[in-house]
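hey so i finally got around to running the thing on that chain from the lab meeting. sorry it took forever, my laptop kept dying and i had to restart like 3 times. anyway pasting the input first so we r on the same page abt which one it is
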Amino acid sequence: MTAWRAAFGLSLLLVAAGLAVTLASSSEAYIVLATTTSTRDSGLLDYLLPEFSRDSGIGVRYVAVGTGQALDVARRGDADIVMVHAPAIELDFMAQGHGLCRSRVMRNEFIVVGPASDPAGIRGLTNATAAFARILSSRALFVSRADNSGTHIMERTIWGWVNYTPDPDVDSWYREAGSGMAATLEVSSQLGGYTLSDNGTFLVRRSSLDLEVDVQNDPPLQNLYSVIPVNPALHPNVKSSWALGFARWLVSPRGQGLIGNYTAGGEQPFHPEAQDGCGHVG
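ok and heres what got predicted. didnt touch it at all, straight out
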């Protein structure tokens, strides 16, 4: 089976499963990137990937899903590289030998958004744990992504700091969207609920949502993104040299400059934070 047919077959399976697949380039020279919905829904990929293709002559075809799913795609050898934002499970992925190297690329932040009426009284707080505690005590509607994404993992972490694990079968105020960030924001807006979002996706979607920013600038809610080329020792069919080239381009002055210049809704959602962990790889 050719690489293109394998990628196309993967695309069909993912579409059938309700996941997001984009073939971002028709170039014969391409890599497959498994990444998060936030990099797509914030508009960053549409801005960044064509620049890499112009610089390198290599196209990028991507699958945008939750971080856990993106890493699973790579574990099967169905992606050449991943760009994700859940450090704990990234380290597990590396420890299992699936990742060749890992470089930090950028950061943004998680924010809590909710309806203008603010029934839990959290607007203006800078502590997400305190905000979640008020949501719990008021039983105000909360919409979870519930998709094992980096955002969902952070949400579960915050509930852990509150010492509570919401159960949608018991807690009628807690709803599970099972969707990406943009779709979860839409559900929250329609239902008048709170949710946890990355600020990039919210900035892009804000004008169409009946939601306000309630909690931001909470230091533990820094959202770190890393890029990991897939290890060819475990997955010999991956395009390792091109994937490494993309990873190095992202942390180069060229890639970092583009990331820093990107704006959404008139604001800068991503901040360059290069830590090159792939420079030593031959």
